[in-house]
Structures are given as structure tokens and as C-alpha cells.
């Protein structure tokens, strides 16, 4: 071998050795970051869980103070603590939504009504007491929760099952409250009938998309005069609404009152056997919000009583329960959308709460055009966000 070839061979050998070393170093460098990433993820998860525990304990403490204020019927303190609880919850709710989606749903269900109380002129202490007790139970479950190990489809199935329980509960309360309303109608007690009418409407509007799936049952319960060709065949809530607020006479209303009880009880019984699917639930929520933003916003729904804001608030609450049910899928495929929906629901709920006096919504005819437009725009935006969830289910 001549000198040039020998030198070249040495250089080539050195290059091969250096290349092998480089590959070895590359492999080592690649392995180290992977280990570091895993360690970082574990540390991050541990930090999140620690923050969740600390946050939960703080909300529990504030809720205990709220319960004491409720017992004393201290309105100012209740309002202050309601806001304090919400502030504490907002500080860590995103971590809860990602780590414990089912427990998050339960806390959110009771925390938001408590926060809403901070804007009320008049506090319903009895109702708030029950809600605070349920919030404490949900917080205790969160405190003892173990990180979810099921896959998204399993979690979604459990969440939908929880939504089914919500729908059944609302249907049961609708049947009960309708009986109270009907008793007042048949007794000729106008003032009580008007009050109970509003209460019953909340439970129906919460689950209206479900009611619409049962053929002519929804029209029998909820048809407006403009929806029927023959007024003699018109039945349901709005038939009696007209008698109470426009005709100011309940003569002949007994037959419609009795039929309304039968129809709401039929709805309650049918809902027990209904099978719910996430996509259909979202479609129903979107349809409800679109209807609220486009047609109901004109005041056509409660044309005689002008209690439309009650309907809007119930529609939003019903749609929010659909959103809560699909959080497992949002966590996996679009957590950013979950953040947007959460904020938009809060914004709309706060906007609606501004239009209350003594704990009751003002009548719709008291709103200005600008106020109506604000509500319509926010409902439309919420509907648009909900529509984006359809693609991930």
C-alpha cells in the first residue's frame, strides 16, 4: 500500500469512527430529551394535581362561609362570597376540565348558579342553600377523584348518561310544576297562576330539543297561536298564557289545563326510555340557540306574558348541559374550543343576569333595542361555537 492510499485509509477509518461516535452521541442526546420530557410531563401533572387540590380546598372553605351567610340571610355577604367562589374556581377550572372531566361537570353545574346569585337584587335563600350543599358534595367528589384512565369514548358515554339523568330530572320537575300551575288556573288564582307559569316554563325550555323528538307532543305542549291553523285545536302553555295575560279570563281553561298535565306526564314517561347520542344532542342545542337568536329574540315566544328572558336563560342552561356532556371529546380533540365555549357561556349568563330585579327577569318589553341586539349577538356566537363541536363527535 503506497503512502497516499495508507493516509487515505487512515482518514477514512477515522471518519467512520467519528461518524459512529456521532451517531452514538446523537442516540444518547435523543434518549435524554425523551426521558426529560417524560419527567417534565410527570412533574407538570403532579403540579396540576396539587393546584387542583389546593384550589378545591379553597372553594370548599369559601362555600362553607357562604352556607353560614345563607343561614344568617346576609344578602351582602352572600353576594360577596358568591363572587369569591367563582374567582377561586376560575383559577384552576381548566386543569379540572382536562384531568377530571366528569367531576368538572358536577362542580360547574352548581357553581354557576351560585355565582349568578351575586348579581341578584333579591336572594332566594332556600334555593341557594340546596345548591350550596350540592356544590359541597361535588367538591368533595373532586377532592377524592382519581385521574381518569378510561378512553374518550368511555368517558363520553358516561357523560352522556349523566346528561340523560339531567333530562329526566327536568322532565320530572316539569310534570310536578305543571300540576301546581294547573291547580292555580283551575282555582282562578291569576297572580299565582302567572308566577307558576314562569316556573314551569323553565323546565320545559331546558329540554325543549328532547321534547321536539316526540312527534306532536311538543306542539300540544308548546304551540303558539301562529303555529296552528284552527284555534279550536290549540292547546298547551301558550293557550293558557293568552287567557291569563290578554283575555284576563280563565273561563273554559280547565280542559286545556287538564290536557297540559297529561301531556307533560306523557313527555316525562317517554323521556325515560329515550336513547341519547352526542351528535343529536349537539344538533338539538344548536337548533335551540339558533331559534332563540333568530326568531325567539323578536318576542314571539311569550307574546302575551313577555317572559321571554326566562326562556332564553333556560335555553342557555339546557345547551350548557349538552356542552358539559361532550367535554371528554373536546379535551381530546379541541381543548381550545372548550375554553371558548366556557367563556361564552359565562358571558351570556352574566348578560342575562343584568336584566333581573328582585330575583326575577324583567319583562321583555322593558328591554331596549340595543340590549336585545346584545343578547342576540351573544347567543349567535355561542351557537357558532357549538356548531364546531359537531365535527369532533
TrEMBL record:
Location, primary (coarse class): other
Record-linked PROSITE patterns: PROKAR_LIPOPROTEIN
Region (Disordered): 25-54
Superkingdom of this protein's organism: Bacteria
A GO term from the CC aspect: cell envelope
Signal sequence region: 1-22
Keywords noted in UniProt: Lipoprotein, Signal
Compositionally biased residues, Polar residues: 30-49
Subcellular location: Cell envelope
InterPro entries: EfeM/EfeO_iron_uptake, Imelysin-like, Imelysin-like_EfeO/Algp7, Imelysin_sf, Iron_uptake_EfeM/EfeO
Chain ranges of the Imelysin-like domain: 159-385
Tagged with keyword Signal: yes
NCBIfam families per the UniProt record, alphabetical: EfeO
The family this protein is said to belong to: Belongs to the EfeM/EfeO family.
Protein's recorded name: Efem/EfeO family lipoprotein
